[in-house]
Amino acid sequence: MAIAEDPTLVDKYQVSDAERMLFSKDDFVDITNSQIYKDIQALGGKFQDLLDVLEGYLKETDIDALRPFNEQIIENKITFKASATKAIRSKQSVRVFWQVPFEADVTLQQKGTSDNEKGNQGSINVILDEDAEFELTVNIKDGTQITRTTKIYVFDECKIDFSADKQYVFPSLPVALTWNVTNANKVWLGSEEVDPCGSKIVEPTSDTVYILQAKDEFGMKNERLIVKTIPIKQAKILLASPPNFTIKQSFSVTRPKYNVEVKFPQIDIDWIKVEVPKVKSFKELGLNVELSPPLPKPNFNLMSSIRTIFKHIIRK
To answer: Does the predicted TM-score (pTM) go above 0.85?
Structure first.
């Protein structure tokens, strides 16, 4: 088919003078990197499907498991995958999806359960507590049945507990590092492989970062721990007794001076001589005034008495 599509391949690979067609024995050692594979792949279209079948045949070690070429082409058109083949137990969601681009009766079932899904395409999301296997069954109208399976393995997530008994230390003083790692395949402290649970005494001379690494089914994980050292000069300053300071200071407060000027209203009195009727007392004039001691009645003089009263008022 490739020669029919591109006759120049005959001369390029000297097919007429060889006891083979396009592929040689050496090409099958690393089929995808061979030049003839790349030349046929460049033809595009259905040739990629044919190359995929050839690549699948070369991976098969049991000759009885090889399926007819036509059936294998049909099966290669089916998409059936899981978003992950390894999942964290009871935590990670995995998507299983499928697509069959031709008319057929399609059923998806998780082995060991009665649950199933039907349809030429679809997907489900699952969180698993244990390993699971999903099977896709495709029944074609001509009686051909194609079965595809995919497995999802479940593992516990790696957990790391890493600590030091001191975070700050004087240079070269011992520090105890302890760790406990669960669900890991291998554990390293720095470049040294260690047991999952253990301890080590270190004597850092300066600020040091210690790294504990663990490898589980999902890759590498690490925890970092920093131990800081206190320089000797700085330590002396921290440990030295603080000096005693005595502050002596005197001050005086001057009593404020207040200048108070008291002003009294000025009273001007002008005496006017008037003829006053002779009366025996002030009450007879409507004045409720009594003098103490009372003046002798025979010598009572109204004007003189009024003057005496005003003088008394002025003195007060």
So the answer is: no
